[in-house]
């Protein structure tokens, strides 16, 4: 049945290509976009959508920027029409006036993106399109509203209800394993042997979220080590000559690498659901697991120490640990959220800052980011919801007594003079 469905889909798509517009259509891409938004027939709309996506893939940098600027301006909403519709709704609230207001307040480009997504296999192309948009939006604030429209739609299309959790192991298809190597963003996978050490042993796990519309592309994945006790070094976790333990003997699951795979899905949160789902699944499979922690980098530590004019080397581990704890609890960005991006992620998920370790990542990357310091975030499944609510409502950070004590020591160190 699957083969028949694939065959029919291929024939159908080929027929669409033959009967629909061709790449040499004389209309501009902007004219095609207007035609797509106004198309009444599903078949004609899919033909137009496919042609637009094909055109976009062939565009050079300037043409893509021009196309995005067109969507951001010509397909924006009309503020005057929004005001009139809102006034009508305020004067006479009801189904008809609400619908008129909702239609006026939604930019036409949202419907344009929806109609593009009706084209078979278009979801992946739209994710790639947004990845391109994000590059331009960094230097062109006018494109920010267009990106918010993409983000709004993607948040619905990629919500947890549509995601599929799949284990990744050494027996997984080669094209999936190749993508795990390519997308690893925390601790680089240097070779297939390196990947094998992370996937094949009985005390190692890897899980990824997939979406049915792009089934061969992982969206995010997490690598897990099953251990006895909480580890204090990623090099020890990934050592070539370490001895594996029987999974049933482990009491701790360590999330040591979490990697987002699709640049076009930036700001679409999957990590929260992924970690909690994996923790729950592992706790059912292995009842002996009592502790769920990360071993996480602190990517902003050294930059913050430079700004604080504090000079500290890896040969002073206790001082480093104290300053790292203070940074994690007290260093904020505008708006009051934690400055460290990894801390924002885990604390927003309801984790607790549990422990910091010196000489935990002595790779070049680890030394450059944090002089080798790493942190454990604890996921206590009985408390993550409470921690999340407190953090979201008031910015309250859950931290162990050890971390709070270290943070106090770090505060005193910052007050010391002179700094060099």
Name a few traits of the molecule.
alpha+beta; Butyryl-CoA Dehydrogenase, subunit A, domain 3; Aminopeptidase; three-stranded antiparallel β-sheet; 19 helices; 8 strands; about 50% helix; globular
Write the layout of secondary structure elements.
Layout: H1 2-19, H2 29-38, H3 42-58, H4 61-73, H5 79-91, H6 95-105, H7 108-116, H8 122-137, H9 144-157, E1 164-167, H10 174-183, H11 192-199, E2 204-210, E3 220-227, H12 234-237, E4 252-260, H13 271-285, E5 291-294, E6 296-297, H14 301-307, H15 317-330, H16 341-348, E7 352-357, H17 364-370, E8 374-378, H18 384-394, H19 401-415
Parallel strand pairs: 4-5
Antiparallel strand pairs: 1-2, 2-3, 3-4, 6-8, 7-8
Helix pairs in contact: 2-3, 2-7, 5-6, 7-9, 15-19
Tally the helices.
Answer: 19
Give the CATH H-level superfamily of the largest domain: Malonyl-CoA decarboxylase, catalytic domain
What is the average per-residue confidence, as pLDDT, rounded to a whole number?
92
Radius of gyration: 25 Å
């Amino acid at each position: 049945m699957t083969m028949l469905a694939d065959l029919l889909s291929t024939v159908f798509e080929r027929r669409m290509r033959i009967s629909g517009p061709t790449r040499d259509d004389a209309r501009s891409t902007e004219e095609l976009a207007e035609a797509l938004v106004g198309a009444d027939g599903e078949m004609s709309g899919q033909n137009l959508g496919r042609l637009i996506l094909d055109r976009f893939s062939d565009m050079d940098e300037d043409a893509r920027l021009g196309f995005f600027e067109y969507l951001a301006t010509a397909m924006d909403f009309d503020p005057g029409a929004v005001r009139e519709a809102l006034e009508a709704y305020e004067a006479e609230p009801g189904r008809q006036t609400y619908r008129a207001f909702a239609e006026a307040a939604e930019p036409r480009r949202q419907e344009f993106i929806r109609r593009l997504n009706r084209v078979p296999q278009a979801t992946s192309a739209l994710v790639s399109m947004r990845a391109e948009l994000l590059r331009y939006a960094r230097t062109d604030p006018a494109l920010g509203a267009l990106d918010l429209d993409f983000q709004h739609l993607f948040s619905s299309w990629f919500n947890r209800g549509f995601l599929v959790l799949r284990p990744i192991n050494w027996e997984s298809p080669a094209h999936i394993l190749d993508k795990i190597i390519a997308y690893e963003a925390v601790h680089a996978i240097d070779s297939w042997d390196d990947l094998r050490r992370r996937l094949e042993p009985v005390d190692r796990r890897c899980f990824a979220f997939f979406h049915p519309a792009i089934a061969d592309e992982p969206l995010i994945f997490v690598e897990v080590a099953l251990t006895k006790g909480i580890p204090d070094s990623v090099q020890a976790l990934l050592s070539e000559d370490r001895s594996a333990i029987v999974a049933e003997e482990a009491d701790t699951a360590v999330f040591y690498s979490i990697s987002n795979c699709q640049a076009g899905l930036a700001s679409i949160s999957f990590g929260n659901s992924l970690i909690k789902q994996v923790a729950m699944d592992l706790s059912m499979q292995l009842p002996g697991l009592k502790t769920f922690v990360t071993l996480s980098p602190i990517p902003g530590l050294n930059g913050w120490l430079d700004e604080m004019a504090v000079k500290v080397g890896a040969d002073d581990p206790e001082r480093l640990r104290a300053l790292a704890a203070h940074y994690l609890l007290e260093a904020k960005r505008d708006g009051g959220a934690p400055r460290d991006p990894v801390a924002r992620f885990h604390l927003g998920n309801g984790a607790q800052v549990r422990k910091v370790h010196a000489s935990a990542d002595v790779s070049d990357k680890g030394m450059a980011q944090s002089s080798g310091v790493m942190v454990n975030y604890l996921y206590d499944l009985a408390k993550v919801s409470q921690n999340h609510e407190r953090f979201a409502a008031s910015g309250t950070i859950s931290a162990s007594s050890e971390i709070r004590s270290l943070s106090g020591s770090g505060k005193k160190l910052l007050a010391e003079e002179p700094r060099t």
